[in-house]
What we know:
Layout: E1 7-15, H1 20-30, E2 35-42, E3 48-56, H2 59-71, E4 75-80, E5 86-97, H3 102-113, E6 117-121, E7 125-132, H4 134-144, E8 149-154, E9 158-161, E10 169-171, H5 175-179
Antiparallel strand pairs: 1-3, 1-4, 2-3, 4-10, 5-7, 5-8, 5-9, 6-7
Amino acid sequence: MTQSNYRHLLSALVQNVPGVLAHISGMLASRGFNIDSLAVGETEDPKLSRMTVVVVGDNSVLEQVRKQLEKIVTVVRVFDISSNDFVERDLLLVKISAPAGGVRTEIRELVDIFRGKVVDVGPDEVMIEISGREGKVQAFIERVRPYGIRELVRTGRIAMVRSGEIKGGSDRFATDTATG
Length: 180
């Protein structure tokens, strides 16, 4: 990827209150930032949620997004995960046409190769769960497309910095303020 279309992973620790997601996504949209991926969920502290946002652009886009996030009162911390050594995952659920017999066996072999699992079986289709890096998930989709994808849903990217100190973060509040 060129510098102009680099994918930045930002992690925002936010207060777990109604309207935070709408506020943040609305702010990003109103300033013309395209969200490539977004995932949000409660953290180990039920008072806080973590939003993982993927935005595409150069470093100036990253800095503008981060500055805008930091202005929001309910945002506690913002980290540039992509400037660290991190683990990332996407989750895919996909229904594939699979009549009983040889086709199901072929699909099952692909599922095993991609370390996925069959989570539901119907008379003419199977539902598969795959998790992993974006490239793995995309490769599986392309590999099963010829069988006939009936329905597909993916999560946004989630990511966590590996053990060690986090670079590229900002903390507007002391930890005691964030947790109450």
